[in-house]
Structures are given as C-alpha cells and as structure tokens.
Amino acid sequence: MKLYGYWRSTTSFRVRIALNLKGISYETVPVNLVAGEQRAPDYVALNPGKGVPTLILEDGRVLTQSLAIINYLDATIPEPPFLPEDPFERARVQAAAHTIAMDIHPVNNLRITAHLKSRYGLTAEDGVEWFRHWMTEGFHAYQALLPTNTTFSFGDKPDLADICLVAQLYNAHRWGVDMTPFDRLLEIEERAFTLPAFDAARPESQPDAS
Known about the structure:
Blueprint: E1 2-5, H1 10-21, E2 27-30, H2 41-46, E3 54-56, E4 62-64, H3 66-76, H4 87-104, H5 110-120, H6 124-145, H7 160-174, H8 183-192, H9 196-199
Parallel strand pairs: 1-2
Antiparallel strand pairs: 1-3, 3-4
Helix pairs in contact: 1-3, 1-7, 4-6, 4-7, 7-8
C-alpha cells in the first residue's frame, strides 16, 4: 500500500496509527501541503478534494478521507477492532471520534484560516486564537463523553476515538492550547505513545518531517 500524506497533517496521522495498529506495511509518499503539491494535476486525479491522506491499495484502487480509510481497514482486517460490537457502545465511540474529526478538525484546517486571512483580514494571531478556541471547545465536549476508570477513552485498548484524539492533541500542543482542564486526555495520550503503533506514527518521525 501507498499512503500519500503530510507529516503534520492530523488526518494523515490518524491513518498512520490505524495502519500500524493493524500491522499493515505501507510506503509513505509525502505531499507537501505548504508548497501546494496537493493541487498538482496528477495528485488531484487521485484525490479530487486536494487534501490528504490518500491510500493506494495493493490492487491500485484509491481511497480518500481518513475516517473512510480507517473504516475500510477495520472492515477488511478485523483485529484489533477499532469499534465495539455492541451498537450502543459503538455509537458512543463514534460520537467521540466525530467530535474530533467533524467538529474540531474542519474549522481548524489550514485552508480555512488561509481563506479567512485573505478574504476577511484575519491576522496570524487571530488565526492561532481561532485554532485554540475550537480545540478547547471540542476537547471539553470529548472529555465529557468519556466513561471513568478506563485505560483509554472507552476501554483498555485504543479505539477509533483514541486514534482521532491523539492526532488532534498534536495540533493542540503545536498551537499552545491550555491543556490544564484536560488531564484525562493527556493521560490517554501518554499511554497511547507507549504503544509502538502510536509512537511510530508521530509526525516528527516521518520521512518528510522538517
């Protein structure tokens, strides 16, 4: 498999974790978002959304969108599972994952703030405050959804919610979010990075890290 991604992309980070947890070998193909490589015609032919990640399967078929990719991996390689079997518990984990992937990430995408800066005069400082605000809002919601006395977000093994959380926490640290109210999330992050699958997926460990 080939994973087209960018080292600092949280969506690419999610898929790296998922591939590692499933024990899948893959080739990393860097796409420099800062240089605009995602808009190159040959890449747009693979991913019309002009984003990352893009996963090329062994048979040449193409998948985009991190949650769709992770869902495919979970459906085709059942162990370890990313979601519980029980429908209610499954929905709880998905709700927490979506809090990260659908509430925080879309409004914190760099192309959103770039548009706000060029179209509405948002300053660089305003952009950072924008990031911090939406991450703080989302983390409060995420933390409130969690049960107590679990090793990870919902159980003793990492699941889809943890994959999304750990990747987003990278951005929180990068942009200086005040993590004082989120001890539980930091504990989960610390435990996750004791696992090789999470540790190897760190942005700074990727070949295109700079």
